[in-house]
Amino acid sequence: MKWLAYLLCFLSMATSSAAESLYAVVTEDDFDDVKSVILEGIAAQGMSLSHVSDIGVMLDRTGKDLGYKQRVYGKAVAIEFCSAYYSRKMMAADPNNIRFCPFKISIYTLPKAAEQIYIVYNLPEVDVTANPWLPEFASIMQEIVAKAVE
Fold this sequence. Notes:
By secondary structure, the chain is of the alpha+beta class. It has one domain: TATA-Binding Protein (2-Layer Sandwich). The chain contains 4 helices and 6 strands, in the order E-E-H-E-H-E-H-E-E-H. The chain has helices at residues 31-44, 55-66, 84-93, 134-148; strands spanning 11-14, 19-27, 48-53, 76-82, 103-110, 113-125. Strands 1-2-6-5-4-3 form a 6-stranded antiparallel sheet. Helix 1 (31-44) packs antiparallel against helix 4. The longest helix has 15 residues, at 134-148. The chain is globular.
């Protein structure tokens, strides 16, 4: 079996302006393969890649400068992307939804468990009646992540 656990977790995280739900999947596939499949999935959905942040490298570099010896991640990236279609729909529904753009999927390993790849992303907890774009977009996000752990 290629994946260790498929955990679609609803972990409510309150913020000052909105709540979000954290979705997490854990796999034992290769980190770079998972990243590639997610990038391909984003492109296949017609969405534009905005940026890939190598958060693990940045934390290692700045940690040394700040005197931290313990690593936070083995590897860690945040993939930011945009969909003109969904961005338009969500911001037309509520201009405050700009806070969810760009969309992001993060992938990471922990230093003592490099074989476990974590894939996480957030979806806003908003009124679906006022934001009818959300179920369709949530399905696309789930599809992109699911393909990465097949």
